[in-house]
Amino acid sequence: MAPPASRRSGHSRRAQYGIFTGYVIAAIGALAGAILLGISLWQPGSFSGLRTTAQDAVSPVGEAGAAARTESQGLFETISGYFRAGSKNAQLRREVELTRIRLAEGEALKQENARLKELLGLTETQQGTVAITRFIGSTASSTRRFGYIGAGRNDGVEPGMPVRSGRGIVGRVLEVGRTSSRVMLLTDSESVLPVRLAREDTVAFAEGRGDGLLRIRLINLGINPLKVGDVFVTSGAGGIFEPGVAVAIVNEVTSDGAVARMISDPAATNYVTIEHVWQPVALEAATVPAETPLPSDVGGEASLQQ
Amino acid sequence: MMDQLNPRARRDRYGSRINRDHSPLLAYSLPWATIIMASVVPAFFVASAFPYFPPLGLLVLIGWRLIRPGLLPIWAGFPLGLWDDLFSGQPFGSAILLWSLAMLVFELIESRFPWRGFAQDWASASVVTMLVLLGGAVFSGAQITLQLIAGMGPQLLLSVLFFPFVARVVARLDRLRLMRFRTIG
Q1: What angle do the packed helices B24-40 and B56-67 form, to 10 degrees?
Q2: Within a 10 A sphere around the Cβ of B11, how many other Cβ atoms?
Q3: Is B11 domain-assigned?
């Protein structure tokens, strides 16, 4: 392919100046980008207004796209489901029987739990669902993992609120627009979540690695009790997430913990619920210095005892 | 007795050459419109726990830049990068900086190797895309770990393999861009 003629400005002063000005503007553009990047790395929330406005504008289109995405996922699953249907059916039947038994056991535990809580006089603080909405999509090519949901300030969503799907924790709200919000997914490299082993009381942190997996770091180092297939649930520490919600399943055991896979994979997530922060007072307490008394009284006492 | 004239004699690939002309609006707006679309659309169809999707906005920008040099001004990286930053999840300013630099790099490559074929275009596009992705990871505010870089492997490979397809699509769009839609006289 021949070189473009526009490069050869010849003796025309006008063309020469035009090309030179182009280079100058491009260099200024790059410099402005560097400055803006510096500002947003220094103060991460500085351009959130612009971003959320843009996201609000396009999110109605996104909801249609999300429907197409989850439906196409379902299609692939249906096709793959036809292979080995018979053996799978038998296996599923066995699993259902086992699950029924476990469910009954779970009910019994729930009742016992409620009775014990009554004995302790614990009161459940503000809980429940803020909004149910569609999970629109996630950042496509950036190394940061953010999701977009179709509910915002108008629906009562606030930054910090936990986001979960039917399967488990998805992430937490980071920026709130008028009708859409940005969610930090669990696999984002800045995300840290306190978790607990579902079968015993081993506590750990689940950190996003940025490559789609979670790194489980045990708090008490010693003999590593983890096995492949272990399920981690939220521990409730930190006060944001309600305890006992599924988070991750162990994929590979390492010397100081494990590498785990997120249970609620965003690709298969269609609808999510946004919930209230589990213990707002505990969160507030974490930001107040130890010597100053907390602004709120009774609710704070009860929730801090846990 | 006259032979019938070939009915396609007065046409070329852009339509009839008589009484028709290019639409300036389409000719100048289509590249910008497609890049703007390509920046936004992937976020709606992709939801994944790790980044594997190629940076479509950047690939379309490179496609237009290489197929029609001089159609997009050298400073096009600034406005288009600004738009991409609104949707990409990167810290604001990262695409402005990286896309502006990418446009300057292509200018440099073009002045150094003026006669080029598709192989060279693909090679330069691949190198620039990989550098932009790695630069994006550095500027993303995430801690750079071995796993993070290893997790980007599929994305880097996909971006390289995706470019010829994007280049074909942009070439078809370029044909649409220069269709003679406007009737004169």
Answers
A1: 150
A2: 14
A3: no
Residues A253 and A255: their CA atoms lie apart, in Å, by: 7
In this predicted model, what pLDDT tens digit does every residue of A185-222 receive, in sequence order? 988 888 899 998 887 778 899 988 878 888 898 888 77
- Token pair of A62 as six digits: 């996104």
Gap between the Cα atoms of A171 and A159, Å rounded: 11
The Cα–Cα gap between B100 and A87 comes to 57
Taking only the tens place, the pLDDT of each residue in A251-292 is 888 888 899 988 888 877 778 889 888 877 777 777 777 666
Please tell me whether the interface predicted TM-score (ipTM) of this complex is above 0.90.
Answer: no
Please report, for the domain that includes residue A208, its CATH number: 2.40.10.340
Q: What is the DSSP letter of A7?
A: G
Q: Is the Cβ pair B96, A33 closer than 8 Å?
A: yes
Please give the structure tokens belonging to residue A29: 């553009």
Q: Which two tokens stand for residue A243?
A: 């305890």
Total residues found in chain A within this entry = 306
Nearest CA of chain B to the CA of A120: how many Å? Answer: 40
What is the count of residue pairs from A and B with beta carbons less than 8 Å apart? 222
What is the number of structural domains in chain A? 1
CB A75 within 8 A of CB A82: no
3-state SS assignment for residue A272: strand
Q: Give the β-pairing of A181-185 and A169-176.
A: antiparallel
CB-nearest to B49 from A44, A148, A212 is A212
Contact B142 A210 (CB under 8 A): yes
pLDDT tens figures, B163-183: 999 999 999 999 999 988 888
Query: Domain for residue A119, yes or no?
Result: no
Helix H segments across chain B? 24-40, 42-45, 56-67, 77-88, 94-112, 118-139, 146-151, 153-177
